[in-house]
Amino acid sequence: MPCERKPMRYGHSEGHTDVTYDDNGKFIVTCGSDGDVRIWESLDDDDPRSINVGEKAYSLALKKGKLVTAGSNNTVQIHTFPDGDPDGILTRFTTNATHVAFNHSGSRVAAGSSDFMVKVVEVSDSSQQKTLRGHDAPVLSVTFDPKDEFLASASCDGSVVVWKIEDQAQVTSWPVLQKSNDIGNAKSLCRLAWQPKTAKLLAVPVETRVQLYERDSWEHVSTLSDDMITQPINVVAWSPCGHFLAAGSVGGFLTVWNVESKLCVERQKHEKGYTVCGMAWHPSGSQMAYTDTEGCLGLLDALPSSSTNAPMKTNKAPVVKEANDYDDLFDEDDDRVMDEGLSESHSPAKHPVVGGDDDDDDDDDLMPTTGRAKNRGSFLDDENSLDTGSLKLGQEKYGDEEDAGSTIALPTGPSLPPRPVYDGPLPTPPQKPFQPGSTPSHLTHRFMMWNSVGIVRGYNDEQDNAVDVEFHDTAVHHAMHLTNALGHTIADLSQEAALLACPATDELASKLQCLHFSSWDANKEWIVDLPKGEDVRAVCLGQGWAAAATSALTLRLFSIGGVQKELFSLPGQVVSMAAHGEQLLIVYHRATGFDGEQALGVQLLQLGRRKRQVIHGEPLPLSVKSHLSWLGFTAEGTPCYVDSEGSVRMLNRSLGNTWTPVCNTRETCKGMSDHFWVVGVHENPQQLRCIPCKGSRYPPTLPRPAVAILPFKLPLCQTTTEKGQMEEQYWRSVVLQNHYDFLSSSGYEIDGDGQNRAQREQQELLMKMFALSCKLEREFRCMELAELMTQNVVTLAVRYASRSRRMALAQRLSELAMEKANQLQEEEEVEDQQEEEPQLPRCRYGQSEGASGRSNSRSHQAREEEHQEELEEEEGAPEMETDESAGENRKRLNPFARGAGGSPEKPSPKPIGKEGRVNPFKVLGSGKSPSTSGQSRVTNVLDSMTSVKRPSPLGGSSGKQNKGPVLKPLAPKPKTKTQSTLLQMATSKAANKKAQVNTEPAVDRLKQPEVPPPDLPVDDSENKKPRTGFQLWLEENRKSIVADSPDLQETEVIREAMGRFRSLSAEDRLSWTERAKGQSGDLADLKKRKRAEEVGGVDSQNGQMEADENIAKKKKPLDSTTKLSAFAFNKN
Amino acid sequence: MDPSEVEFLAEKEVVKIIPNFSLDKIYLIGGDLGPFNPGLPVDVPVWLALNLKQRQKCRILPPEWMDVDKLEDVREMERKEESFTPPPSPYYMELTKLLLNHASDNIPKADEIRTLVKDIWDTRIAKLRLSADSFISQQEAHAKLDNLTLMEINTTRSFLLDSLNCMFKLRSNMQPGSGTGKALDY
């Protein structure tokens, strides 16, 4: 039967203590250096009675209602027990009394003192004193012979003396102790003990052993020892039956021997390894109380008593060996390898309800910075040492018993199976549930909640158990002060209500209390009792609802007014919850974590009208070996959490609901043990609101901490470089902008300005990065960056590239710009189609904005180009080059060209060259402001687009080249052509004519130079046809589309097109060929007409614009120009 | 210049407050203030802080130097050094007075701070008197004193100047010859 070691509890302030039981064992009585004597009804007595006996109390003895104490005021006093009334001074010394003891009958008291004297005083008559002189140093301890004949004392002079009381003379003396000059310097307190009842043996602690001396012969008869005791024994105490002797040592070893067999019956180690300085057996012999030099009181229960004495003798060994599980093993004998950490980590598990538990947690929680990891490390170490220890243990046992000369057979010896040692990953203790923004519940003054609404503080001290609710914004509600009669430990606060919850007690069920202060009726409060056995673990308040997660793995939803609503089961024990608006975020234990990791899962629910689960219990990513320390939403409603390593992560809804680390608060900490205690996160402006805690994890309630603001910083690589910085800024802006989409999609108002600002900022950053990579000659990277840009910014980039003479880059960029423009158009078309349903007003707004921005930038650019041309004209030769390359640009502009070419076809330099060369002349000749050379140079997206307005009226741009192709248009061709165009149409959703027109001319332009004269005429014709008849083309296109796949296109449009085509079919071919011819002619004239066309075009364009305003609004002006051209054709 | 004017100048000093109301930026001639978010510290001039405090619209966070440990150091320095040490703030006396009078509940250990600042003040004023005394007794023409705050200068100015004037007159009267003109002047 291993005894049970109860966890230590605080008894007195630090320092020497002593303990005893009262006569019938009802009370434990302790004294300590705080000068108090405390009377405990049991170890769990939370309110022991205190009697103050002086400044300090060194020793006490209790018998027959008399409490005798040795205090610092050089006296030995008597108090009545249990009343504690002073009953006079028994005796005085010239200095401190060190130890007092009653005789068996309680009639006499012996007291040893630092003035080398021992006095024996009659309790009834303190004048009858006997003084025993003979020690040469302070007396350490005294003890009476139970038969009242002798008295033994130990002293710092190293001697243990037996006195004959009547004669006041020394009977014998053993110089067995180490000498010292004062009590404080003595290695051991050397409390002697005389065997009760028989009074046969005197036990003297000598170093790590206990020597037993026989009465009368005064011979040393035997020694009790144990290998486990490595430090001097302080105290020995006989069990009331006299069969067992207990010893407590420096370093906290507690040992019980069976004196007859000299076997160690019990071994215990003080849970913190403090020195045991007081020890007393319960009169029944089944319990033993002990105290340590730190003022704590402990208890060993279920000790072998005299009644079980006989069986014990035989069972002793089996008892030890049979211990087959870890717990028994280390309850029974703590191995010396084990240190405090182990017992610490172990004891809470065993006694989860008792006070010790709290202490352990305290250590844990308050452990600074590295605390967690360190603690865990030690925990793991302990576990390991446990393993090795447990193996050794068996052997040691054998050894012990043999040493002690045990004659007992060890029948069960071999039955101890070799336990397999497990050295794999060890489970992490699961993190306890917490409220985000609260400090640990064991603190007497704590924050129960600190969030963006206000602060809930809890006070739980002697005077007061109260809850204070205070609002940041006094406009919400005035501050409240509540008495916390129910013992609430959990709280949440919102603009509407404060929610409090308390765990169940023995009598009362767990309760949920809601202070619904925003209620408009008179009842501002409701309370709900949870079913028996169910404890609230976490609560949170959303908008108009409250949620409580319970120990029964249930989540209960309530309306804010107290109506019970849905409830559902959680997949694991809840860790924390947070709510925002209609969203509910739950983090729970998904599984057991190993090696310091927590395995947490997360659920995100949407509880609005349309209830759904957004995140379905996915694992929550945490930093290595960390736990969750804050959970919540940003003010904008993005889920967000902080782990104990200070890493802040935010849900990235645009990346498949992944979690992006946005900040590490530890980076901004000055000291290793400093922390930031997060209280809120804002995305716009980007703020992490937290409280700096110097040297701790949690802020104290007083002085009232002030909130500090940390910036976000994505942990991107190389943020010290300019590039890294800009990348970080860009992605931070992108991540923190996600909430706009979410908010608008869930129907909230959004800050449009803020969003635009963010977008502008992003584009600016992209442009900067682009410029930077340009400087670094990283053209590929430039392209990659350009892909992230919006179309109009790409055009800027094109300009930048061409200005910095990176023509290859500029070309590619303009292709990209083209692509983007197409995409945009497609999107617009899609939107046009969807216009009936006003679905995403925000989106449309953004786009129309973008479109107008684009047009602006384009016109701006055009102006710029003009400017540049003028400059370049002066330059002469270099300009030619640029023109040429610009020509190339133009050629590649079109996505189709790319598609067709696949490999970048080298343009035959001739035509382009011509164009390029011709232009400058013309410009010069015409003398008009917009020079053609400029245009050709500008051939980037925008310019190619502006030039688009020409192609239809003008036919082809360079007559000669086009001539070959012009021949092609044959009657049958259209079909092939339509086919090819069909594809294009399909891609660009040809429902819209203008779009088609838009791209087509570009194709033409590009293709022309590509197709050298010797090329096959057929190919040319294909290329050419689009050039010749746009109108027809489109109609045909539609037709073919209808034929092929009517479903794809808007049926109306198609049918219309079909009808037209059929009605026109007779004339069609004619007009077609005519156009082809006309175009070729036009083409020849192109250059000359250009300018005039442009002017005229612009005018007519305007007219057109007005006419088509509705449609044109969203399109670029470009579209209207193409429309114009189409118009012109129709006239033809 | 009287002390109230110096105090007025001190009220321009910036101090952090934690408002308990919400307000957008306010645009003033002296610069923009805010925005005010409940619970978030914000920098405002002392005059506004005190005004808000009096209306119970904010909590004032004491300036960094208004801390017992720091002030104790300053005091020790001040006592040790012969010359003037840099004051904790150019308006330390005024700010202490203002903040402690109006917001002592927001400032931990207000009484200790008051005593400390008074100690520092006394030490410095004693030094000032001492230097004035030696300045006069040694009949120096000019002296240089660093690290004096406006308030300190202000306390001694009127007295020192008047007395110097007076002494000048007395001296010039004592000197025969030149005395007549001056005396008439007076």
From TrEMBL, chain B:
Its main location: nucleus. One of its GO terms (cellular component) is CMG complex. InterPro entries: GINS_A (IPR021151), GINS_bundle-like_dom_sf (IPR036224), GINS_Psf2 (IPR007257), PSF2_N (IPR056784). It comes from the Eukaryota. It is found in: Nucleus. One of its GO terms (biological process) is DNA replication. Keywords: DNA replication, Nucleus. CDD domains: GINS_A_psf2 (cd11712), GINS_B_Psf2 (cd21694). Transmembrane segments: none annotated. The keyword Nucleus applies. Residues 65-162 form the GINS subunit domain. Gene3D superfamilies: 1.20.58.1020, 3.40.5.50. Residues 2-61 form the DNA replication complex GINS protein PSF2 N-terminal domain. Belongs to the GINS2/PSF2 family. Component of the GINS complex. Required for correct functioning of the GINS complex, a complex that plays an essential role in the initiation of DNA replication, and progression of DNA replication forks. GINS complex is a core component of CDC45-MCM-GINS (CMG) helicase, the molecular machine that unwinds template DNA during replication, and around which the replisome is built. This is DNA replication complex GINS protein PSF2. The gene is GINS2.
